[in-house]
Design brief:
Order of helices and strands: HHHHHHHHHHH
Strand content: under 5%
Number of strands: 0
Largest sheet: none
Number of helices: 11
Length: 338
């Protein structure tokens, strides 16, 4: 019993010194290796067996004393183990589901991208169809604008239609006839604008002078003014040249107002386009610029300058003669033959 007690005490002292269970084994091995006699070894072996028996008895007593707590701990441990196992299985299933969702989302993303591209294509096709529908109405609208002399709207419409027909709609074979027709109208459009410009430059302006002189003649005949009436008083007449000069040189050092005024000129479809001759000529110049026919316009003005000036002189001469003859008739009727 004393040997067993010593062995147990040695076991406890060894376990207290080191938490590692292998410490006891090392101590026993060291004891057996240092003993020289077989009897000592048998004695050591007996001590160990007694110590183990004592430990088994103590363990049995502790198990009996703490059976309820031990059973609860084992059941709790089993429950925790089962929960951990179930959680691992669920996490594995969740991972598999996530991978499956990822693959499905990739497929959906490709489908959505395809649908998005198809939507863009359909939208582009609809825009082209709307543009084609609008371009088909251009000849009729162009004819109406030309008839009402709204040349700027007509020019914008024609240039835009030709650009579309020769650009995005170039491959549409069904519009070939319309393309040729509008292209031909665009090539000849500047001729109409140049004629209108000459009419306002040389004819419309001189007609206004003549009408003003006729009014002055009528007023002078009513008041029996003996002083001669100036037939060509153009000092206060707003000619295009005076308009441009006063606009351009209005303030020293300022930017050219001629370009600004030309850019700001807009066409009002509700009003008579020829009511303001200066604005109308600005509209004509702007239309010619959109047609890129300014060089041709300058050349035409230079070529027809002499002819038009001769026509002005001829018309003015006839007008002066007619006015003089009419005044002579009026004076002779009033017995004032001078």
């Amino acid at each position: 019993k004393m040997a067993a007690g010593e062995a147990a005490g040695r076991y406890r002292s060894t376990m207290s010194k080191s938490k590692d269970p292998s410490g006891l084994l090392i101590s026993v091995i060291r004891t057996l290796s240092t003993s020289d006699d077989v009897e000592d070894r048998e004695t050591e072996k007996g001590r160990l067996e007694e110590a183990y028996e004592k430990c088994d008895r103590d363990l049995d007593e502790l198990i009996v004393q703490h059976y309820t707590e031990l059973t609860t701990a084992i059941r709790t441990y089993q429950s925790i183990t089962e929960r951990i196992t179930n959680s691992r299985n669920k996490i594995k299933q969740v991972k598999e589901n996530l991978l499956s969702c990822k693959m499905l989302l990739h497929c959906k993303r490709d489908e959505l991208r395809k649908l998005w591209i198809e939507g863009i294509e359909h939208k582009h096709v609809l825009n082209l169809l709307d543009e084609i529908e609008n371009i088909k109405q251009v000849p009729q609208k162009l004819e109406q604008c030309m008839a009402s002399k709204h040349y700027l709207n007509a020019t914008d419409m024609l240039v835009s239609a030709v650009d579309s027909l020769e650009g995005p709609l170039l491959q549409v074979e069904g519009l070939s006839d319309l393309r040729l027709e509008l292209h031909s109208k665009k090539m000849n459009m500047h001729l109409v604008l140049i004629d209108e410009l000459h009419r306002h430059l040389y004819i419309k302006s001189t007609n206004r002078v003549g009408q003003r002189n006729k009014e002055k003649g009528r007023i002078s005949s009513l008041v029996k003014d003996a002083s001669p009436v100036p037939l060509m008083d153009v000092t206060n007449l707003s000619t295009p040249r005076k308009f441009l000069e006063t606009s351009q040189f209005s303030t020293p050092g300022s930017s050219s107002m001629r370009e600004t005024s030309l850019l700001e000129i807009k066409e009002d479809t509700e009003l008579d386009p020829e009511e303001n001759s200066t604005v109308f000529m600005g509209i004509l110049i702007k239309g010619l610029a959109k047609l890129k026919k300014i060089p041709e316009t300058v050349k035409a003005i230079q070529d027809r300058l002499e002819q038009e000036l001769k026509q002005i002189v001829k018309r003015s001469t006839t007008q002066v003669a007619d006015n003089g003859y009419q005044r002579g008739e009026n004076l002779s009727q009033e017995n004032q033959p001078r």
